[in-house]
Amino acid sequence: MPAHALSFENIHLPQGKPYYLRRFHIVDEPKMAIPTHFHMLGEIMLFKKIAGQVEIDGQAIELGRNVLVFIPSLGMHAIDMDGDDREFSLLQFERYLLSELNLLEFTSQLERPLVVQLDEQQAGFLHSQFEWLENVDAKSEDRNLAYSLLHTIFLFLAQQHKGCLFNAEQSLVAARENKGLSKLIPLLHHLENQQTLNLNLQQAADICGMSKYHFSRLFKSLFDQNYKDYILKRKINTAVAMLSESRQSITQIAYACEFSDSAYFCAKFKQVMGMSPGKFRQSTQTVLSFN
Predict the structure, then answer these.
(1) Is 28 exposed, middle or buried (0-12, 13-18, 19+ CB in 10 A)?
(2) Is the pTM of this model over 0.85?
């Protein structure tokens, strides 16, 4: 797996929910390479059919049938998916969900990455829990039932570290090598909690308690891009979600994403995405109409 520049992924959960479950079945699609990234959410991936690799904190592990992967909040990871038939479940969640599920006693187990090969019985059990949870969510059934299923899934996860294929000591070495990332966490939390992206370089450096010079150097070394370009990409990422999921006008989305005007927004969107916002929205609606 080739080395990738680090990036931060801004994930939007459904409104009012601390988790988001999706199940995928992808057939005859090209190889998919998800570059090295991290996010505030934790995530569980359960692969039913897959070929490829997952890389966590610089450590690459082969993916295959019935492999379970857990990435804690802020864990750096990349995935290469091969094969003609890929089937897997993805559960992403807010950290506070563990408290709501009364699982704080398992916090230490659920703060470490996990990759484990499940046997058929274990995998069958976990697949059934994911399918049940999906059905409960689809029918908007009792929240208590959904939380009971989530509790079972996380409890199962916390008990799997003995068979883990992931080397925790090697992970700690990688974490120390990337310790500069912790200095930028206050900024990432601020961007998430305040729901604003219009922070200039000095404001961002102040939030991290650093000079502009040291902040810029550290940011560029970790993200392989300058702060201004990073903020632009986050704005575009938000716009992509709004274009796909809302009926707001291009002008409304431009202002919501904190661009000075719609013309500037359209120019920057095309620069990053290779097409205009209108064409992107049209292509998205065309794809959705065939689902």
Answers:
(1) exposed
(2) no
